[in-house]
Predict the structure.
Amino acid sequence: MLGVSGSVAAYKAIELCRLLMSEGARVLPVMTEAARRFVGEATFSALASEPVPAGLWTSVDPSPHTRLAREADMVVVAPATARLLGALANGICDDLLTAVLLATRAPVMVCPAMHTEMWENVAVMENAARLRSRGIVVLGPTSGPLAGGDEGLGRLVEPTAVLDAVRGILAGLHGAASDGTVARDGTVARDGTGSDGPATRDLAGVRVLISAGGTREPIDPVRYISNRSSGKQGYALAREATVRGADVVLVTAAEGMEPPVGSEVVAVETSREMERELMARCQDADVVVMAAAVADFRPARIQAQKISKADGVPDMALEATPDILSELVEVRRPGQVIVGFAAETHDVVPRARMKMAAKRVDLMVANDVSVPGAGFGHDTNAVEIIAADGASTSVPMTTKAAVARAVFDSVVDCLAKSSKESAARGKDPAKSSKEEF
Ligand SMILES: Cc1cc2nc3c(=O)[nH]c(=O)nc-3n(C[C@H](O)[C@H](O)[C@H](O)COP(=O)(O)O)c2cc1C
């Protein structure tokens, strides 16, 4: 069900409706009275799977709110006004949309849109926090241009980002890949089976630190050494963790990527900056995923001025960059799960296993970047996820979103194992905390 409330951003709900329909979803549109002042009901009625119902009292349906509440696999409100958030947070249901929101047992996601001053009002912030604490996904808002020529936090997240989140939540519900297609009946499947599985908000409250992108190591003010990493896999990991309920910090050297909604994004350029930002944050993380392609070498000296072509080919000495993964493992706190990535072009799995043994991480994701369509720059990937006990999970060529899902499935297993181990240690006083430190 797509709920639309009375924000200027209501016009974007038209595009969202179209995107959902083109993915094969059955879209039931519901508009508030204020939303009808911004965009025409006829547009939604024409685009969606059924016409916009008249209202709580005026619908031909004798009980429109309970029918819609039961039929929906998921309820998305985009845009969600300050009033809508307030009504939902306080259990007020004085129109069709709020009545459905109260009556439904389906997952609910609201996408706020309003001016910065409204979003930052304590009442609105408290309402949003209350909704989050009840398991409602609050997606956005994001920063950017607002109505009336203003700029700031309060902008509705882009319809494509809403679609990604819908896919992720439905995939969790139906035990399928977060990039699975939405079937006519609203279910999602990785392989078209539509098989049921456990709902996945399995990272709720887990703090996840992710690195992404290839670092750029300056030679002089205009040149640098880098690698082909786009950051797409790291961003897909951030999106997946957010949808599963984690608090995500993404330290990224990637350029030109749309920030993943819901993550705190820290932009860096060099390996030195990447090291500083990750080391400053790792103690606060329950899970660290080192997906960035940190340069292995950098110029030993950065020239203050542009090296002139006229001076001939420079004699450039290189030095090793910090081994951030080893440093993270060195200061790992008890119970923390650390995931490494090994991008290789030959002997991929043996080399990844060697790296795993040397670095002592919990999971190593072996990535054969020589396979066409896998690794750097692509939207697709194929990996082998190796666990500390040697077991491995093969993820054949699929989207980076699906790889992210498989990685976090393994992370969840590691977290469960480590909490079981610490519970067992807690029961046995003979085993001192020395073992942990
Ligand atoms: C031009 C205009 C733009 C508005 N934009 C927003 C907005 O972006 N977000 C918001 O929360 N309220 C906005 N409002 C106020 C809401 O429309 C108003 O609170 C209304 O009662 C919301 O009703 P609803 O939540 O039932 O849709 C706007 C009002 C006007 C007149």
Notes: The radius of gyration is 24 Å. The CA atoms of residues 354 and 433 lie 30 Å apart. Residues 207-424 form a domain with the Rossmann fold fold (CATH 3.40.50.10300).
